[in-house]
Amino acid sequence: MRHLLVAILLFAGAARAQEMQPDDSVSDTDSDTDSDEAEAESAEPVAAPPGVRYSSDVSDDELRRRWEEDPESLGSVSVGFADQGRLINALQMPEGEAWVRQRPDLSWGAQETIESLATVFRAVREQFPDSSPARLSQISAREGGHLKPHRSHQSGRDADIGLFYKKDSLSRGRSRERLIDPERNWALLRELILETDVQVILIDRKIQHVLRAHALAAGEDRAWIDRIFSGKHGAILQHARRHRDHFHVRFFAPRSQELGRRIQPLLALRPEQNLVAHKVKHGQTLGHLARVYGANIAAIRKVNHMRGSFLRIGQQLFIPLRKPCTHCPLPPPVLVRPRCLPSEPAAAVVSLSLASAAP
Question: Is 357 helix (H, G, I), strand (E, B) or coil?
Fold first, then answer.
């Protein structure tokens, strides 16, 4: 009987503790395990339209010469996929009045990513000059690659942006969707969609419901809102269950990505850059990987700053190669889709225009 009483008390205590916790207590750095993170696994062959080349100003011969002699002159290079890639010549998000970098050491990205974030943050600040700055959590490490605990954030195109909250504070014990500031968060989302080349934005469905209702109440074009919040495959906005406190934004970085595709066969010309990303599978050892890739065990340990030889399933490694890789995954041609624009201006914008035109 005493054991039963103890069990009841423990259960009641646990339930009470659960009630005291916020409905969603995850942070901006919780593990990204949703399917939309798996860019490398979901990529499909795409034929680039004739004449489209996002790095056409650099010929093949010029690219080879500059890669050998002056790689910094090429600018940022995004190699591979968002979940299986790395960065060369990354840019760091600068300091700014419209945003705060929560992790400056993990705020490195492709040039297009940095420029897009700055554009959006400044636009939101112009609309809400008295607002607290936007919170940029993480983009990528300086050289890209696996960024614990994320699945993506490897090639400088993914950014986590914290949500705006009412009174800029987060009270415990309430669900996030009741605490967020719909007006500022919609303004942020709207600028991302209209002013940048966004590939996908991940956010929890409950947050989406709040933002959709606010957008419609503000007079936005319903057909446009329906396209944004459709949730269909390929839509800009996708549900991600561990994303109730931040937007996970993946940008197209066309020039950086295209340079990455073109440089991949040339990596062996610079041995220090001739690396391939590998995710450890069951039964694999350093010796096995060295044989598969024609690499050296000591070199693998050095590049990955390993003290021992123990490997974990799912661990991400950079494998230094001695020659060009003939079986490394190559992303499909970069194809930036047209921006998702409203078919008609928002009612609020029309009213403002009419008012300003009145005598």
Answer: helix
